[in-house]
Amino acid sequence: MNVTLRQRNQGGKTSLYLDYYHKGKRKTEYLKLYLDPKAKTKEQKELNKKTQQLAETIRAQRQIEIQNGTFGFRDNEKLKGSFIFQDFQETAEDPADVDNR
Fold first, then answer.
1. Helical ranges in 1-101 per DSSP H
2. Rg (CA), the chain
3. Considering the entire predicted model, what is its pTM?
4. Among 18, 19, 97, 100, which is disulfide-ready with 29 (CB 3.0 to 4.6 Å)?
5. How far apart are CA 36 and CA 12, in angstroms?
């Protein structure tokens, strides 16, 4: 799953947001970070650059969180798999117990 940093023009500003898919559903997360598309001074351009870097850092963090499963997504298949493995492991440790089930 890829997390993509996107931009949307809103009024006189450019809003930054994250766009990703989870199990076929599109999710968006607005970062409440804005770029000034009409930046002319060195300070304004530097502020845009720092805002863009911050947004990219947040994007990378979300990517890692999603890959590690800490962003609030629960993979039900993985949850089921651990119980199956546990049952298999118990059976392997005591094969005589299979008949008693």
1. 42-68, 76-93
2. 23
3. 0.65
4. 18
5. 7
